[in-house]
Write a sequence for this structure.
């Protein structure tokens, strides 16, 4: 296999990881906003969907170039809702 082809394949794999990360991170942010909205309304909420996205992001991060994200607790959401 030529060096050019190997580099192209590597770049394509990295690009796929980055695009997957961007989609997961965007979905995670939407779930965070949803939890904040419910919290501010005094309604029940969970962080399950947020952390599902977080776990998928962190699995990608283990492969390199993708940043890790922290798992989110209900307390974190409540604290942030009080500050904003």
């Amino acid at each position: 296999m030529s060096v050019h082809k190997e580099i192209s394949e590597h770049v394509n794999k990295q690009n796929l990881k980055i695009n997957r990360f961007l989609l997961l991170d965007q979905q995670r942010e939407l779930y965070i906003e949803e939890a904040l909205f419910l919290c501010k309304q005094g309604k029940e909420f969970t962080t399950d969907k947020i952390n599902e996205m977080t776990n998928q992001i962190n699995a990608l991060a283990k492969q390199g170039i993708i940043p890790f994200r922290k798992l989110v607790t209900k307390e974190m959401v409540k604290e942030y809702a009080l500050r904003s």
Residues 3-40 form the longest helix (38 residues). The chain is about 75% helix and 0% strand.
